[in-house]
Amino acid sequence: MAVGTKIASGKARVIESPKHIGKFKKGEVLVTEITDPDWEPIMKIAAAIVTDKGGRTSHAAIVSRELGIPAIVGAANATRKLKTGQMVTVDCSSGDEGMVYAGQAKFQVIEHKLEQVPETKTHIMVNIGAPDEAFKNAYLPVQGVGLGRLEFIINSYIKVHPNALLEYKKQTGKVKKQIDQLTQGYTDKTQFYVDKLAEGIAKIAAAFWPHEVIIRFSDFKTNEYRQLVGGELYEPVEQNPMLGWRGASRYYDKRFKEAFGLECKGVKKAREEMGLQNVTPMVPFCRTPKEGQKVVALMEQNGLDREKDPTLRIYVMCEIPSNVLRADEFLDVFDGMSIGSNDLTQLALGLDRDSGMGKTIGNEEDPTVTKMVGMAIAACKKRKKYIGICGQAPSDYPEFTRFLVEQGIQSISLNPDAVFQTILQVKKVEDSLGKQKPA
Q: Is 390 an active-site residue?
C-alpha cells in the first residue's frame, strides 16, 4: 500500500531491529519489518520507508505522511528482496499500490501556485508530527492544526519516561546516567519535561498563529511507553496494548496522574507564559463521560481551568463507538469533538489497524463508519460545539471527504501531502451543494 503521493530515491538500508538504527544514514531508504516510535529518529531523515507489515493506519504510514516521506507498507517481502546499499526508487504517486524500482528513476515534480488555491467554507487544517515540520507546513493554505501529537515531542526531544524523571532518585545507575546526559543543565528533572513539552507545542502554535492549534495529550500505548528511558519499570506488559491502558484511563490513574500533571503544565506554559492562546488541548481515547469528568478535574488542578481562563477550550477525540452513542453526555464535559477515523473504524468493524488484512474487509467508507461519523457531526452541530476530523480517511478517500462536507463538518485536518487536492475537492462539493440549495 502506497502512503502519500511522492517519489524518492536512495540507497536501501535493511534494518531488522531498532538496536541497529545507529547504522542508518540520512537520505537512505529504510527497509524493515514494521516500525514503532523507537524508529522515529531515523524516519525523520529517511528518503523513504518500506515495511513488510502494517496497514494504511499503522505507525509507519501515519508518521511518514506527517513527515512528508513516501512509504510503502505491508510489502510482505521487502526485507528479503531488497539489499543494503542497493539504489532504489520508491514511487507512491501512482495510486494505492506502491512500487519499488531498481536504480534511480527520473520523475517530474508538480508545483501548486498558492494564489490560485480557492477558499472554502469548510476549514482545512493540517496534521503536524514533529514540531520541526511546523514552519515548513505553515506555508500551506490551511487554517490551523487539527492534530499535533505530544508523542512526537516526547519521543524526539525528551526520550525519558515521565515517571523516571519524577522518581529520579529511585533509578538505577545506568538509567540515571542516561537521564543526566539528556537533561544537562537541569537540576529539576521534571522541569526538563515541562520545558521541552512547552517548547515543542510553542513551535507548532507560533508557526500557525493566530489559527487554532489542537494539541492532543499523549496517546502512547504501554509497549511504546516501555521503550522510553526508564519505562520498563512503570509499564505493564499487555497482550493488546491498542485496547489497553491508554488515553484518558492513564491520566487519572494513580500510577500516571502526576505525569499527566506535567503534560498539563507544558500546555499551560505554552498558553500563558509564551502567550500562545491558540493552543487547544484534546483528550484521546476517552471511553466514558465519567472518565472525561475525571480528566477535566485533573486539568483544573494543574492550572488548565476554563472558569479562570475563558479563552481555554478542551476537546475530546471521537474515536470509540461510545463517543458517538453518548455524544450528548460527552459534550456536557467537553467543548467539541475531533473524529479519529482510524480508531473509530478499527473499533466499529473489529479490525486491527496494524494489520494489512483489514483492507479486504472494510474501511472508513463502510456504512457502519459513515453512520457513526454522521451521528457525531449532527450531535455537535445541535449543541453548537466544535466538530472536526483529524483521522486518515479524508486524505485517502475522496468520496468520504464529500460525505463530510455534505454533513456540514466544521473542519477537515489532513496530512500535508493531501492539502491541495482536498481543498480543490471540497470547493467543488461546496459549489455543487450551493447550486442545489440556494441561500
A: yes
